[in-house]
Amino acid sequence: MRTFIAVSLPQGIKQQLGLLQEQLKRSAADVKWVQPHNIHVTLKFLGEIEEQKLGQITAMLQDTVKDKACFTASMSGLGAFPRMTAPRVIWSGINKGKEDLIRIAKELEEKSGILGVPPEDRPFTCHLTLGRVRSSANLHRLVKILTETAQQPDQEFPVTKLTLFKSTLAPTGPVYEPLTEASLITT
After folding, report:
1. Catalytic pick among 8, 36, 40, 117
2. What's the whole-model pTM score?
3. Is there a catalytic annotation at residue 127?
């Protein structure tokens, strides 16, 4: 089964990101938009794993959070990979809590390697994917709106747990199913 580890977002943040997507959609650019209810912070994409490894992955998640307290993160501004003037992936950044998320992602990368999960081929970048550009149609309009709306006020959200998701690819878009969760320490 295809899996990843992520931080889920509160409904209010997902709604805010959906509103940002609506502004960007006015460009009529050829973008495959992530459904707002599916937006999350991916910490580690595990890829295809065998069902018998679920216990080991659950133990890895529990071990990762055992000494970590809940914290606050914030989404901040819009951007694009590889750059704003030639977007392939449109994202919202993470400001507050970014260093904590990077540390957790690094730890997950190391621990999942022990379980035989291949390492990522590029460095971890803390972000929320909003859409993926499919062609250059109306790209100039998208870049203009993206640049005009890039500065957004920070929107805070709590990080209280890590979730292992199963991802099933479907014609209407991926379907994410939580398989297990590991809660951070509440103080």
Report:
1. 40
2. 0.94
3. yes
DSSP string of the chain?
-EEEEEEE--HHHHHHHHHHHHHHHTT---EEEPPGGG-EEEEEEEEE--GGGHHHHHHHHHHHHTT-B-EEEEEEEEEEEEETTEEEEEEEEE-TTHHHHHHHHHHHHHHHHHTTPPPPSS----EEEEEEE-SSTTHHHHHHHHHHH-----EEEEE-EEEEEEEE--TT--EEEEEEEEEPBP-
Decide if 37 is catalytic: no
For 2-53, write each residue's pLDDT tens digit.
999 999 999 999 999 999 999 999 999 999 999 999 999 999 999 999 999 9
Instruction: Kindly name the residue from 6, 91, 127, 143 that is annotated as catalytic.
Output: 127
CATH number of 2-183: 3.90.1140.10
